[in-house]
Amino acid sequence: MRASSNQQEPWGVRWRSSTYFIVATMAVAMLTDMYLYGFLVPILPFVLEHRLGLDVSLTQRISTALLSQTALVMVVASPLIGSHADRSGAKRAWLLFGLAGALVGSLILAVATSLFTLFAGRLIQSVASTGLWVVGFATLADNVPADELGKMYGFVTVAIGVGTSGGPLVAGILFDIGGYWVAWSSVLFVIVFDVILRCLMLERSRETSVPVRAEPDGQDPEREALLPPSTDPEPQVSTQAVSEKTGIQFYLCLCGNGRFVGGVVSYFCYAVLTASFDTTLPLHVRDAFHWGSLPAGLLFAAFQGPAVFLSVPVGWLKDRVGTRYPTTIGFALLVPLVWLIGVPGDERFPWAYEEKIGSIIYSVSVTCIGIVICLLNGVGMMEATQAVDEIEGENPRIFGPNGGYSRAISVSSISWTLGIGDMRAVFIHRLLEFKIVCAPTASEADVFWWSSEMRTGE
């Protein structure tokens, strides 16, 4: 309904509450989050050894622990944040609170001169990040129409990729050019821009934003769930009053839905596959082809790059045909490709043992996997959202007046976290591995010499 005559609509209410502006705001929010975490990677050795005065031998161990902290925080905090966000209804305040936490955590990290302060700042950042991922995707689910959800998730995926790669790049350049505080100034700029967008964004009420995305009786079989929904011998009538599912009952009800279970399992497998490349690719190309850091870096670009160009088209495809067939086809194509990348360099396959032929096979296979896994992007979030709609379509308000998007997405986020550990922690290992790649015959003493050289800047 329109506002009463004695109430004036907020300035710019149309575009501030439009789907595209909300998606753009959430995309920038995700980009900011990934930028903040990736930003710390190239300057962390300087922080630990020069500002904190720690021994060089402790740098890698503490760096990994610090960057892995987010994974533990997300597993613990996601359900709590999701539950409170669903009860509160309006999510804009949660998003602003998360941004304030990111700002405070970043300031603490910037001025930290002790390990306790450093880990405290990272803890605050981690809690803010967890809230952003859970509440941010729930905000998209609340405000994006069903037939555009996949495409909009594609835009967000592109923003996440830009933030992940842009953080370390910008931090390294600014640190070399202007020093420590000039590098941190970019964090302030990104956060201020994010503040402006989040303050401008206006949510629409759950009743007027988008209709409940329940599938019609004669739905297209191509839009079915990844797993068939559970069958109830005595289905409830939609007009029948049902008790609200809270606490453990909510999660039991959700896990009884085949769509949700299929999405969570697929998301977990997708995360495991992604993490395996980050931890094994540099070492494999070193041993099999004697490649250095440049070829290994180009392979990572070939693996991760297609998502930037294909996420939106694939999201559009899922909006048209559903997630079931694209996800199934994606996993089916991955089976021979994953087998094929293990063939080069293996003596049991003489036709691929030669370094030149093997390197071509491996490079093409990695590139193809990077293209195929685009079919898996967003499967966990989309299936979690649609599972909530499916259940609420049969039993309106079973998850309360504000729905259950945040809680469902928190479970999906946990499945990703458990599968991948924490990709951001892998960055430190990758930096060290690249030097090993450059010197395949290097001894442990050589590697230690390089590590000290890199950290001291000599």
UniProtKB/TrEMBL annotation:
Residues 214-225 have a biased composition (Basic and acidic residues). PROSITE patterns: MFS. The keyword NADP does not apply. This is Major facilitator superfamily (MFS) profile domain-containing protein. The chain crosses the membrane at residues 20-44, 64-82, 94-117, 123-141, 153-175, 181-200, 250-273, 293-316, 328-345, 357-376. Keywords: Membrane, Transmembrane, Transmembrane helix, Transport. It is a multi-pass membrane protein. It is found in: Membrane. GO terms for molecular function: transmembrane transporter activity. One of its GO terms (cellular component) is membrane. Belongs to the major facilitator superfamily. Vesicular transporter family. Residues 22-458 form the Major facilitator superfamily (MFS) profile domain. It comes from Penicillium flavigenum. Residues 211-236 are annotated as: Disordered.
